[in-house]
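User: what does the whole thing look like in 3D?
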Amino acid sequence: MLTYCLRRLLYSIPVLLVASFLLFGFVRSTFDPTSRLRASRDPSVVQAERDRLGLNDPLVVQYGSWLKDAVSGDLGVSSRTNEDVSSMLWRAMGKTLQLIVIGAFVSAFIAVGVGVFSAVRQQSVPDYLITGLSYVGVAMPPFWFGLIAIQVFGVQLGWFKFVGLHSGDSTAYDVDYLKHLVLPVATLCVQIVASWSRYERASMLDALGADYVRTARAKGVPRYKVIFKHALRNALIPLVTVMALDIGALFGGLIITEQIFSIGGMGRLFLDALLQGDVYVLEAWMIVVAALIILFNLFADVIYGILDPRIRLS
Amino acid sequence: MRRQRRGVQLLALVFCFGLLAAACGSDKKATGNAASGSSSSSSAAVPKGGTLTIGAEQEPDCADWVGTCGGSSWGFWMMQVQTMPRAFDVLKDSSGTYSYKPSIVLKGEPTLETSPKQKVTYQISDQAVWNDSKPITSTDFKYTWDQVANGTAIYDRTGYKDIESVDDSNPKVAVVTYKNTYADWKSLFGGQFGILPSHILQGQDRDAMMKDGYTFSGGPWVIQQWAKQDSITLVPNPNYWGTKPSLDKVIFKFQADTSAEFQAFKAKEVSVVYPQPQLDAVDQIQAGIPDTQKIVSTETGNFESLWINNSKAPFDDVKVRQAVAFAIDRKALVERLFGGLGVHDPLQFINAGINKAYEQTDAFAKYVKDLKQVDTLLTGDGYAKGSDGIYAKGGTKLSFTVRSTAGNKRRELTEQVLQQQLKDAGIDMQIDNAKAGDLFGSILPQGDFQAGIYAQVLTALTPGNCTLFCSSNIPKSPDFSGNNWTRTSNPELDTLLATVDSNLHESARTTAAKKAQTILSDNMNTLPIDPLPNVLLWSNKVVGPVGDNAILGPFFNINEWGISA
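Assistant: Here's the predicted 3D structure for the full assembly of 879 residues, as structure tokens:
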């Protein structure tokens, strides 16, 4: 398994190199990090800044310089804020992690419950209702749901808060924090729950129709034990794989949610950096997000093998 | 296994309880009458204590005001103005005119000598101290000059590079001698940069010490915390020698955009907002927001124009430029954009409203919609109207493309209105918008446009238009630095605008500025559109002399604000 993991990681290196070079080239040719200085009355400032940032060097030289530092662990300094890129990433990652961990937990909890219920009550009215709602959930754009949720639950009813993760300058994890979490987590969960619950329903139906479940029933095992101990355990295996893949992708995929709720996570970091042509931040962001996706993909493969010993990684 | 399962159940229970508690524990919605007049202040007594939360549309890049990362307007309003001492304040007098007034850092008006060299002597107040009780001295003036004039990665050396020396032999008297005359000397040792504390920064890496916020202050507030991507917190400076803050704390909470800011304001998550006058903001203000007050100010440091590339056809022809100006109904346009805010009249000079004292304020008033004039000008120039109703000359249609910032709804509406008005007059206008970074980073500096719609924002009370219209500031390859993007080139204008920038006599500057404005109008180098109003909204809970300052921003006197229970 170790060889398998190492091989997968090695395969990802050339992909990362090509992707990072393309990103570097696209950003450098599209966004000018000195554009914010055009308002300065001092015409020499733009040229001085171009010299300082090395923008007059050929693209390959600029990229090479960045790569050399990056492989030695130095992700550089933001051209926009003069701040260490690594500290910017850590800070943003902390906020995104809060959303992802809580969102994934809530989504898994609801999706498994809904999927099991739907499978057990297959072709009943509640099943049709849940199926319909799932399609709505999958089709609903997160930004639309988020804005409606803000308007209804934030502005009109005033139940929840929607600016950042804390009120004022608080950093406490208290009721106020929960009030801030509800709407972004709900926005994050809507699509995920809809999709995960469909997976869970399908695998649960497979499991409920399997021989070992029929055997357990024939042996007189109580219904709840058959569902939760025999069927659900096996039905979770495909869902765990999907969850691992989805969670990995979420690290870079919360741009809209974070923007709507003014949360300074990875999504907003990406957007701010992109609009300002802050290439070092974008490169570091891409590397971290890609590494997380690769790791979670790897984790999905490994966990699949662990959960189902019949599968061997090779 | 059983224990594990119980753990999960318990966790789920706790989480669900948390959600319930969060839902049930919500604030009660405030009720009351709408009160959204245009009063500039609330006369209620200012209570002591409390925390005020303000919505901030942008997070600054850094707090090193001198450095290239320090040019953010919001950073200036939220932190610089509150913490950095300055030689001059920009204040509005009883007649509504903005002017420089010596700040409490000085004992009074500095002495200006004009010959043999320009020399300014600042007498520093004995009470002026930093928050660590160390006095503000002439060495701080000297250090500030040295950093701006000689430092690396500096945002703007204008003025400072004209200084020859700063004499700090007397700690309470700073004598600044200029090698080149600089008329706008009052904007130095203040303005965007303030005065830097030499006793803290001398010999240190200034940028490293300031960029993420700093603990020193010579203003009413101290930066307690800058939680990146979230908020900035200010607390009172206990050693401030002016009016001490009434509030215990001010928090600027960063908002994703204007819409989010409005939602947060309506939900009372923030008590004050200073939104950009975008269309949806104007609509919401017009509809009224309960329990709030507002100020709409047209005398601002901003102005929007139809900026014309004078070097590119068809605008290399003055008659075409004039015809376009006569084809546009600017009053109707401004009414459509800002009528809901009570702003009805177009700007009639090319400069920010706060500089009106220097300008010929009716210079462009002659350009009102007049289709007869359009026809006279264009037919006199060899154009003839085609069967499609568009003028053409030598088989070429009179057509141009306007470029602006993509996604800005207000500017998109401006373009649509202009397109229709020009079409009615027989001129074809196409629209090709670009991302702000591309527009200001390359398209405008490189002259890759015929006309553009964007705003200029003043950061100092200076009437000089040389940056925008002197031929020496036309961007040139390879770096395309210089801000004369309209490629205006007129020797007479150059001389006049140079006088405005360098003459130390106010009357001479004013005369030259007014004459320059007339030349700009006669040649129709660019068409001013609107003053781009500032809008400040605040909850009725906020009391004190709430108002807007076109240069120092809306929070310039927040030390005098309070919040009622």
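In plain terms: Chain A has a mean pLDDT of 87. Residues 119 and 202 of chain A are 7 Å apart (CA to CA).
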